[in-house]
């Protein structure tokens, strides 16, 4: 397994773990809402923050899965827009990247 693929697999596992934690929060695995209305308001605000974090994690997970699929297809180091090679330094810094710097801008 290439180093990039391994990093993507590790990132994927981390993201899936985060999604499990967010789901546990949303299902109130730690307990129901507090009886106090002020505490309920804080908990509901926290729910909104968790919803935003979950959306970000899902978007990143989609990027990771897309990059892994491109690697499996043998085109993981080519820009999906122009077809030119993606700079290895870019792939090292952002392993889920599927675009070269020029196309990303």
How would you characterize this protein structure?
The protein has a single domain (3-104), classed as Four Helix Bundle (Hemerythrin (Met), subunit A) (Up-down Bundle). Helix content is 67%, strand content 0%. It has 4 helices and no strands. It has helices at residues 3-26, 37-72, 88-93, 101-104. The mean pLDDT is 87.
- The CATH class: Mainly Alpha
Rg from Cα: 19 Å
Name the shape in a single word: elongated
Structural class: mainly alpha
Quote the distance from N terminus to C terminus: 30 Å
Q: Find the count of extended strands (DSSP E, 2+ residues).
A: 0
Please outline the major beta sheet.
none
Q: Can you name the CATH architecture?
A: Up-down Bundle
Poorly predicted spans: none
Strand content range: under 5%
Itemize the secondary structure elements and their pairings:
Layout: H1 3-26, H2 37-72, H3 88-93, H4 101-104
Helix pairs in contact: 1-2
Tag the structure with descriptive keywords.
105 residues, Four Helix Bundle (Hemerythrin (Met), subunit A), 4 helices, 67% helix
In short:
This protein is mainly α.
């Amino acid at each position: 397994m290439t180093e990039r693929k391994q990093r993507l697999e590790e990132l994927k596992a981390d993201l899936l773990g985060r999604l499990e934690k967010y789901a546990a929060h949303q299902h109130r695995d730690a307990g129901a809402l507090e009886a106090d209305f002020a505490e309920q308001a804080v908990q509901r605000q926290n729910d909104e923050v968790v919803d935003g974090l979950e959306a970000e994690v899902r978007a990143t997970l989609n990027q990771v899965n897309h990059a892994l699929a491109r690697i499996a297809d043998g085109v993981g180091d080519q820009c999906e827009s122009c077809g030119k090679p993606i700079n290895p330094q870019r792939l090292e810094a952002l392993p889920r990247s599927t675009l070269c710097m020029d196309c990303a801008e």
